[in-house]
Structure formats: C-alpha cells, structure tokens
Amino acid sequence: MATKGFVLYLLAGFSVAVLSVFLISDHHSYKINHLPHRSSPNSVTHDSDEKTWPELEFDGRIVLATIIGFLGSAFGTVGGVGGGGIFVPMLTLIVGFDTKSAAALSKCMIMGASASSFWYNLRVQHPCREVPILDYDLALLFQPMLMLGITLGVALSVVFPYWLITVLIIILFLGTSSRSFFRGIEMWKEESILKKEMAKPRETFANSRGELLIDTYEPLIPREEKTAMEIFTFNLRWKKLMLLVAVWAAFLVLQIIKNDLVVCSTWYWVLTVAQFPATLAVFGYECVKLYKESKKRKSLGNTESVCEASIEWTVPHLIFCALCGILGGTVGGLLGSGGGFILGPLLLEIGVIPQVASATATFVMMFSSSLSVVEFYLLNRFPIPYALYLMSVSILAGFWGQFFVRKLVTFLKRASLIVFILSAVIFASAVTMGVIGIEKSITMIQNHEFMGFLEFCSSQ
C-alpha cells in the first residue's frame, strides 16, 4: 500500500509540474533567433556555451571541494546513490565550473567511486547466504533500462525548461529520501527486537512430548570460512559480467556514432530508435529467466526468493521494474548523476537487503557513469587534470567508505545504517540541487527568458 501511495505521489507531482509549464510560459516573449541560454548540467550535445575551467591550484577552494567530494563519494557509494546531486553544486559554487563541465566531472567522480566500491565488494562475503554479494541478475534486469533512460534524460534536458527540471528533481528526491528514511526506521525497530532476542541466554528445554529442544538463533552448522581469494572468485561471475560489458559496449558504440551525426537527421533517428530493441532484448531475456525461476520455485513449494528480492517476479512487477529503471536513467540524464537515486531505493523497496542493494546499485552505476564519461571525453567537456584528481579522491573515498561503514554495520549489527545514509545523501542532494535550480530560475525570470518547452532539433 505504501508503494502505491508513493507512486501516486510521484505521478501527481510530475503531472502538476509538467502541466504548469503551459500556464507559466509566455509564448509571446519567445524569439526564434535568440534562444535562451541553456544551463542544464547534463546535455551531452555540441553547443556554443562558454566553458569555465578554473586552474587546478591547491588553495582553500580545492581543499574544501576535496573534503566534500570525499565525504559525498564515501556516503554516496555506501548508500548506492553515487552522489551526483552533491558533486554538481559543489563544482559550480565552490570550484567555479560551468554547469555542463561540472556534470561531466561529476560523472568522473561517480565512475571512480563506483569502480573502487565494485573492487572492494568483490572481497566481501554475503552476510547470510551462499551467493555473491553482487546480484548479477538484478544488474542485468536494470542496467539496460537505466542506460536507455539516460539517453532519454539527455534528450529531455534539451527540451525541458531549467525550472521544471529543478521542480521534478525536488519532488523525486524528497519522495525517495522520506520513503527510504521511514524504511530505515522500520528496519531499526526490527533489528532492535532481534538484538533483544539474541541477548537472551541460550536455553535448553523439553517440550510436552519430552523431546529436547534448543533455541536456534545461530546456525547449528557454522558457515565455512573462506579466504579472500575464494570470496573474490566466488563473487566474480565472468559470463554475466561479460554480458553486462557487451550491453555497455553496444550503447557506447551507438552514442559515439550519434555524436558525429547531424541532429535530427535520418541516420540520427535510426540509431536513436535502434537502442530500444537492443535494450528490450536483454531486459526481456532476464525477465523470462526470473519469471520461469519464480514460477518453478512456487510450483515446488520453495519459498526461497529468486535473486535477493522478496517479491514474486510476476508480469506487473517486471513492468514496474522496467519503468523504474527508465525513470532512474532519465533522472540521471537530467541531473548528471548515475541513476542511483532511483535504483538504490528501488532495490530496498523490492526486498533486497541493504548490503546487497548498495553493492548492486554501485555496480550498475559503474557502467552507466563510465558510458557518460566516455561521451563527455569525446566532446571535450572536462579538463583532464581535474578529472584525474577528482577521480583519485573518489576512488579512495569509495573504498574507505565501504570499509568503515561495513565494519560499523557488522559491529553494531544494524544494516539500517546503510538505509539512513542513502536517505541522507538523497535529501542533501535535493537541498543543494534545489538551491542551485531556484537561483538560476530566478535569474531567468529577471532576464525575461523563455520558461516553456523548447524544440528538440532547434535547441541544440
């Protein structure tokens, strides 16, 4: 019921925001030969916007940006959301980059943090099952739709007015952060009850039939201890990893070819449409697999969940996951993030435990963010020295963030800490992106700029 209410909240909020464009925009002030300045932080198109690239000097601004970037990467990867909503404002307000270059550097930071988190998680054992900590099936389910959504988000960033993007981001982030926060509270209460039960002294007693009983809070057969290399090889599934890489490479080739074509030309639209069957093929393959496994287990009376998700893989659930994957990618394209702001909360929503949700979300973001980094590099959208420096900061942050938080979770026996971190990062992103967006929208109003939808072909 709570999920339906959340979906209705998003649909109502998005609908009101989009419809308000027609009431706010003043069509008479639009001049074809004087298009408004597009300050969207995410468009990967050729434009004549002036680039603002400060020199890399280790002064107070760089030190402050380094601290914020380190903390944002550390907590962002632990929560499985990346941190793009924090990086973009930090790079524009503190360092002084233009918004498009800031978005490109944000992708570099997300890629670095996600890659280091992936490397760290390969050495982490699943907390309660003999399965990899990375759920490859869920990754294959969401990665294609996420990448397709990023393509749509980049296109919409050219058409949507900046103020509308700001409103949509605030609506989405406040909804997902509050939803994650309340889920964290529920998990905290459940963990508190479990800890009280575990603290009771072990008892041995007999039932009414004289049978000997013992409590079974701990497994009678302890888990086999594995070496670091055994855990690494167990978590690394080459066949599924290569399939994910193949999907990534297919999208990369299409985007590289598209960048050399005239926008809205015949071949441009052919390649754009070609992304849909490729995406649906991989997604459909994984859907059929999950559906058959779920149906087979149910027919055998096996209550064990398929993947880490606790939901049944029915057609409505699979369609819901597809729509959420596209929505997450679209938000990533609009914002300049990796799509984790949707994927992280979504994995928790379908019943994935926090440790696996965090590891899987960052794993998927590694592909989506690296795809954008390659595109931005080909368009010369970021300075290489800054990118290398910020990536190195994020790589260290991603590793040590995972290390300290997972040690803390193990010590306190509270996986809900990961959910609270996720909620906090999303809320902080809503505040920072909201402040930036409101400020720029006020400037556009003062300059009497066009506040409605733009034409896709003529706006690039």
UniProtKB/TrEMBL annotation:
Q: Name one GO cellular component term.
A: Cul4A-RING E3 ubiquitin ligase complex
Q: Where in the cell is it found?
A: Membrane
Q: Which GO terms describe its biological process?
A: protein ubiquitination
Q: Which residue ranges run through the membrane?
A: 6-24, 62-95, 162-182, 241-257, 269-288, 318-344, 356-379, 386-405, 417-438
Q: How does it sit in the membrane?
A: Multi-pass membrane protein
InterPro entries attached to this UniProt entry: TM_pro_TauE-like
Domain of life of the native organism: Eukaryota
User: One Pfam family of this protein, by short name?
Assistant: TauE
The alphabetical list of record keywords is: Membrane, Transmembrane, Transmembrane helix
The answer to whether UniProt assigns keyword Iron to this entry is no
Family, according to the entry, reads as follows: Belongs to the 4-toluene sulfonate uptake permease (TSUP) (TC 2.A.102) family.
What protein does this entry describe?
A: Sulfite exporter TauE/SafE family protein
